[in-house]
Amino acid sequence: MTIETLNARRLLCPLPVIRTQDKVKQLKAGDRLEVICTDPGVMQDIPAWCRINGHKVIEATSGNHEYTILLEVGSS
Amino acid sequence: MSKQRKAIALISGGLDSMLAAKTIMEQGVHVEGINFFTGFCVEGHTHAIREKDKAKPKRNNSLWVAEQLGMKLHIVDVIEEYKNVLINPKHGYGAHMNPCLDCKIFMVNKAKQWIVENDFDFIITGEVIGQRPMSQRKATMPIVAKESGADDLLLRPLCAKNLPATLPEREGWVDREKLHDITGRSRKPQIAMAEQFGIDDYSQPAGGCCFLTDKSYSAKLVDLWKSQGHKEYQLDDVMLLKVGRHIRPQPNFKLIVAREEGEGRFLQGYKNEFISMISLSHRGPLVLIDGTPSAEDLYLAAQITARFGQGREAEQVDIDVTMLDGSERTLQVKPIREEDMPKAWYV
Fold it and tell me: Which of A14, A34, B152, B313 has the fewest Cβ atoms surrounding its Cβ within 10 A?
């Protein structure tokens, strides 16, 4: 299992989702991706994108004006 | 056994594209959504940036629609390619800087490329004849189909019965009788259809989420183009048009003044790319200076910066100026009086 980090700071909706989508295409099922953002909208948009596309949000945290989402790539 | 047909639906996040996709899904066609990010769908950015709005961020409506319909959504970054659409629209602009017809042709063309690459059969849009004054008229429907290259692979389920049958209809991939014949600007048929489908929560954006239809935003874009002498732009340029007060005292420079803490934090990220100013002696906003100001211009900019801080009534305010090379100096200025700032300075 690979764990990668995506720096999506300063990007505004929907760019964090687009960058996440593009990064996930390069990963395999079971790999994990940590996305670090400054747009609070990602706390609903990235989980929604994961649900639609069959990926799983492992953890979503926020603090110090940053929002971090750890997701696991699904098999679909 | 007949082949499972697949369609891609252009999803804006509004009700019409949602209903169009749902209409075709109901006929057993596999539908996925596609949404194009041009750089100008910035509806939620104020909420993302401003401190007071952060607790209630706006949802991404296209993702929300896809989730409600249970379909995949592909969000495609077309920022670079879109520049040519905005700069050189063959069919011109709408009421503001919105090149709606060229934009629709561009997006349907991108969808056509997508279906070829992904082995899908046809394209769906939520267009309705007469719904929009520029891009959704009886006369423009064939123009979009032809100039996009989609031709009769482009199906508009909400008004299909008012248009010639497309390939999906002629081949029986969809039943034309179960499509619709909506025309005009009334929303009643769509609202009734939403009720039939059990859809009771949907976005009703006027003109979509595109800020090129916004008068104030378009004025800032025109000002940007005029000041730089050409229409080229970077994503950061158009992002910054949404943030802060824009004040142009002279053609060669403008100030971007943060209106509150969240905007200040956002502008902080651009501090190294602009001359910046902030008050040292009183609380005040971060200000970015865009352009090529002279020493005299910088003094005026410092006076304006002082005007927007708590020292606005003071005899003297100390303004820290950070130049592009990182060098800093302090200007001691008397804040400009409100009556000395013409309304025409506000972009």
Answer: B313
Interface confidence (ipTM) of the complex: 0.91
Of the candidates B69, B64, B22, the residue with the CA atom closest to the CA atom of residue B43: B64
Residue range A3-72 in CATH 3.30.110.40: yes
Both tokens assigned to B17:
């594209």
The CA R_g of chain B, rounded to the nearest whole Å, is 24
pTM for the whole structure: 0.91
CA atoms of B37 and B103, how far apart (whole Å): 12
CATH architecture of the region B6-211: 3-Layer(aba) Sandwich (3.40)
Please state, in angstroms and rounded to a whole number, the distance separating the CA atoms of residues A26 and B18. Answer: 30
Chain B CB contacts of A51 below 8 Å: 67
Of these residues, A11, A13, A57, A70, which one is catalytic?
A: A13
Contacts of A10 in chain B (CB under 8 A): 269
Query: What are the tens digits of pLDDT across the range B150-204?
Result: 999 999 999 999 999 999 999 999 999 999 999 988 889 999 999 999 998 887 6
